[in-house]
Model the fold of this input.
Amino acid sequence: MTARSILTRALPLLVAGCLTGVACDSGDKGKDTKADAKGDAKSADAKAGDAKEDEAKADDAAADDAAAEGADDGPADDGAAEGEDAAKAEGGDDADAKAESGEGDDGAAKAESGEGDDDDDDDDGDEGDDDDGDKKADDKKADDKKADDKKADDKKADDKKADDKKADDKKADDKKADDKAPKLDGKPIYMAKCKSCHGATGKADTKLGEKHKIEDWTVPGWKAKWSQAKVVEIVTNGKSGTKMKAFSDKLSKEEIEAVSAYSRKLGK
Done:
């Protein structure tokens, strides 16, 4: 038998052996995978059991703590009190939270904004009262000044009316006197009896007029000062303290009226 024939026969056996070994390895790996899966499941169940056990222990510990607190604070049936304490604690936490977040700082906000400042409001009220008092005082002064000004204006108006009335009355008297002027011409009488002292125009620009300082009739205002009746009185009875003598025994009443009227016409 040759080596080739031997190899030819042996080769199939070798291939079959290899295949058998591969199959065996695959079967062993599958078994190992299943075993691992079962082990993982058991581990998960164990962990879940441990978690439940821990929760039960925590519940038991909480119950024991609650029982201990109940024994210290009072009867075990005061659960409502514990509930209220818990609520208060939660409320305190809420208040702390509001304090931290700035909510509830109404007092500070009001203080900053000026709300609730009763003292400041009172001060403002007092200042307002002072301002009102000052305003009333100023108004009173203004009213008093207006009243005084009105009185002064009324007095001026009354004085002016009185002066105007006097002037009007005087004019009326002068007119009446002029209306009653004599029919005689007073100029010839004046030139004969009065010219030497009073001058031809009433200026007293003569030697006697200058010597005796006789008044100038042509100065504005003289005629207003000397009415017809006054001139007649002086011509009739003379003027004391001067060189003016009486003409009652030299001229008739009509002549005196005529010369007096002419004399006033010369004046201003």
Q: What stands out?
A: The chain is about 80% helix and 0% strand.
